[in-house]
Amino acid sequence: MVTATVEIPTHQDVLNFVGAPRKMLIGGKWLDAASGKTFPTYNPATGEVLAHVAEGNSIDVDKAVTAARKAFESGPWHTLTASERGRLIWKLADLLESHLEEFAQLESLDNGKPIGVARAADVPLAIDHFRYMAGWATKIEGNTIPLSVPYTPGVRYHAYTLREPVGVVGQIIPWNFPLLMSAWKLGPALAAGCTIVLKPAEQTPLSALRLGELICEAGFPDGVVNIVPGYGETAGAALAAHPDVDKVAFTGSTEVGKLILRAAAGNLKKVSLELGGKSPNIVCSDADVEASIPGVSSAIFFNQGQCCCAGSRLFVEKGIFDKVVAGVVEDAKKIKVGPGMDLATQMGPLVSDEQQRRVLGYLESGFSEGAKAVVGGRKLGNKGYFVEPTVLVDTTQKMKIMQEEIFGPVLAVCKAKNFDHDLEIANNTIYGLTGAVYTKSEKKLKRAQAEFHCGNLYLNRKCTGALVGAHPFGGFNMSGTDSKAGGRDYLLLFLQAKTVSRKI
Predict the structure, then answer these.
(1) Percent helix, strand and coil across the chain, each to the nearest 5
(2) Whether the model pTM is above 0.90
(3) Distance from CA of residue 404 to its chain's centroid?
């Protein structure tokens, strides 16, 4: 049953914001959709309509791309110095900090996440990321290159590289961390000097639109940031395929990432994909079991399991299997489930009716293939999109619940023979995002570093670690492309190198 009981009053600014139809930001103006259509967003805790939002389509996307192109090529944005760009990004962070409670509540209502998580993590991390990237704006540098040409002895050249913004960037973000994903995408692109068309997830567009108001208030030139809400099949597809977009940065499912890649091929635009995962946790027989259990639990139940890096697979060596499973089950039973706006809530609802049905479908699949729920396994409550924290045992590697991303609070547990077996089954996946190993053995830790095939490996700590600032985050294989989000390497994805050479 839903257990949380201390719901807080909704901030008046939030009530005002959701009380009026929300428009899209194009060229510094708030506009209705060209079609005149709107779509509803829902409170996941109740299933009730929360707000109505302009439904963008290809016409709106084209207007936004045109505005972004104008701002990039002939507007004041391209004449600003790096320090001026950095100051604007920092000012945006300051404005966001001054509205922290408002954004935390908006995020909780729109996404369903606990208000305590939004206050402590989502909004502060977004603020921190903007400030981190603001500092990078003045540190974009090229290189000087000593040239020695054998067939022109004695001739000297002066050669160097310039780092230039890639141009107009289309950014498509998911619904699990709406504000934070906006910051992760906007921060490096703005620091690099790009202009942007942002398409937030149709399930959770509100914090991005409110952020757009702060972007205008901060003084960013018109057209630098454009925000077009709408559905993936229309607005998202149009943005990915638009011939005047120079780069697409996408975070979401692997299935949609493949579609984005194909759509972007028309003009060979650059594409960065941060995709799904099926992340394993390994608990070895020599691990500190008491320390590993909370890490394993947090890795799957945080954010209702709606994390690409969620530790949805657990491999435990046979000697400690029962103890570890019992500990995680006990943690799951203690989790207080309820509306995000309830202070007592530790785990909120899933984001939508569709996502709830998806997770329940995976549970049914697991049960039909022989898996057993030792805790949870069911829909929770009569309203809202709640699913019980769930731990499944009697699993096999061929089950869908062991191979496919569920994106919910469902942990599939498997008994391992030894560390060799741990690594074998951990790597038995099309993904390669994150992984965790709990052991006191330095030899095993070194083997994990060498043999565990994932983009982010966490040793004796939980595998949900996407603290993207200076911390690079991203995966291998079907978990994504290019450099990981965070740090200098990710910033470079929004830049292109020009080589200049002259005879002297």
Answers:
(1) 45, 20, 35
(2) yes
(3) 18
Token pair recorded at residue 116: 């305590």
* Catalytic status, residue 216: no
| Residue 424 burial class via C-beta count within 10 angstroms: exposed 0-12, middle 13-18, buried 19 and up | middle
Class of domain 13-275+481-503: alpha beta
Output DSSP code: residue 230: B
Sequence ranges of the chain with CATH classification 3.40.605.10: 13-275+481-503
Q: Which of 102, 202, 274, 405 is catalytic?
A: 274
pLDDT at 1: 44
- Strands (DSSP E) contained in 395-474 are 410-416, 434-438, 456-459
Confidence of residue 3 (pLDDT cuts 50, 70, 90): low
How many helices (H) and strands (E) in the chain? 17, 21
In the residue annotation, 308 being an active-site residue is answered as yes
Residue 253 token pair: 């499912």
Interhelix angle 82-98/206-218, rounded to 10 degrees, is 130
Q: Three-state SS for 14?
A: helix
Of the candidates 406, 345, 331, 415, the one whose C-alpha atom is nearest the C-alpha of residue 376 is 331
Q: 376-393 pLDDT, tens per residue?
A: 999 999 999 999 999 999
Indicate the pLDDT class of residue 4, thresholds 50, 70 and 90: low
Please determine, for residue 27, whether its predicted confidence score (pLDDT) is greater than 60. Answer: yes
Q: Which of 413, 408, 422, 407 is nearest to 378 (CA)?
A: 408
CB 207 within 8 A of CB 179: yes
Catalytic residue among 194, 308, 454, 463: 308
Pick the CATH number of 280-467 from 3.40.309.10, 3.30.1330.30, 1.10.3630.10, 1.10.10.10: 3.40.309.10
Chain-wide mean pLDDT for the chain? 95
Q: Find all residues with CB under 8 Å of 152, minimum gap 6, and list them.
A: none
Tokens of 212: 């757009």
pLDDT tens-place string over residues 58-74: 999 999 999 999 999 99
